[in-house]
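pasting KCD14 protein for the record, 243 residues
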Amino acid sequence: MSISSEHKPLGKQVTGSLHTLSPIVELNVGGEMYTTTLSTLKKHPGSKLAEMFTGQPKLRTDSEGRFFIDRPGTYFKYILEYLRSNQVPTQCIQDVYKEALFYDIEPLIKQLEDSPQIFGELVARKQFLARVPNYSENIELMIRIARAEAVASRQSSVIVCVVRTEDDAARCQDALNSLDMDKKSVVKFGPWKAVPSISDLLDCIQMDVEAKGYKISFQPHVAEKGFRFKSHDFFYKFLFTWW
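structre below
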């Protein structure tokens, strides 16, 4: 059965060689339209973007015949700006960095990694968090506990124990044994061997939980009178607000 002209497919695989195409290329990147040249797209031969437009076409087209790339179109303008003029973007650095990684544009990746935002995240913060045992797992555990306690509540709380040294870890365990709470519901972070302080780690926890879309705050956890230790030396209450 033949397809009538009223029911044309939304996209099609391009056949033939790109060498036969016009040097002017129209692109549909995630719904954003761009016009550029083949030479611009192929400026860095080893990149994934250049490979998309080298030899046998590897992209589909939209209903208007534009090459379609299923990526966020908003940030592609910064990629094009770099390819055209070697101008490193100063806006949306984190998002442009993700796109540079996807398109594998090595010179842009390296220059973005030298920017304060990416350098601070990759070299400083993430290197620190890599030295905090089970950091990512503990973030997920906090979220699971908070969600489990959210039934018919506006807020749910998670008690976190933060220890920087092995000695503090031992003292924290003694303190934990004295606390009137379910020990399994306390999430422990540390110890670690790095310069950042407990307050730095608490900021990281809040930052990474908020990055997952949650509204969260924290405060020192004040234990009952007669407690053997100053509980705020180790224990903090993280509040998840749901509505």
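The longest strand covers residues 155-162.
Residues 135-241 form one domain.
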